[in-house]
Design goal:
Helices cover 57% and strands 15% of the residues. It contains 4 helices and 6 strands, in the order H-E-E-E-E-H-E-E-H-H. The strands form 2 sheets. A 4-stranded antiparallel beta sheet has the order 3-4-6-5, with helices on one face. It has a two-stranded antiparallel sheet with strand order 1-2. Helix 1 runs antiparallel to helix 3, helix 1 packs parallel to helix 4 and helix 3 runs antiparallel to helix 4. The chain is elongated, with a radius of gyration of 22 Å.
Amino acid sequence: MNNQIIKDAKLRMDKSIDAFRQEISKIRTGKATTALLDGIKVDYYGTPTPLNQVGNVSVLDSHTLSITPWDKSIVSSIDKAILIADLGLNPVSDGTNIKVPIPALNEERRRDLMKLVKKFGEDAKIAIRNVRRDANDHLKKAEKDKELSEDLRHDAEGEVQKYTDEHIKKIDDIIKHKEDEIMEV
């Protein structure tokens, strides 16, 4: 019983870290990466479609992304979708392909991005602590229902706390890595 609760808690904590990584991958660091455009939806014949499903997104160089749409008639829709996404990017179209220059970040923008990364990190830590609380509640309920002893509950809570500490340290490491990436000129 307690092994299943611990395994479930660890899995949910891992998912929280994955969600956090995915969230901060969209934050611009001054370098071109296709992840910047992952959340953009293009109006494709009336249907909002992810950008990577209507064309090939690639990195030309460290400061330029290239989009080659499979259907040349939607170049203007892709242009519009990138502008609407409000990522601070200005696409340049030549009629068949789109180039997206990634502007250099100024110091103020870097600080704002760091605040955003830290906010996402704090949200992820809260999610992990909520998982810990849920697991501990399940363990207490199992003890109350006589499914496990007080000693086993106490040991299991210690293990849940160990996983919580590990996952929070991972988040701190990810934040530090992203901070280094953003502050790099």
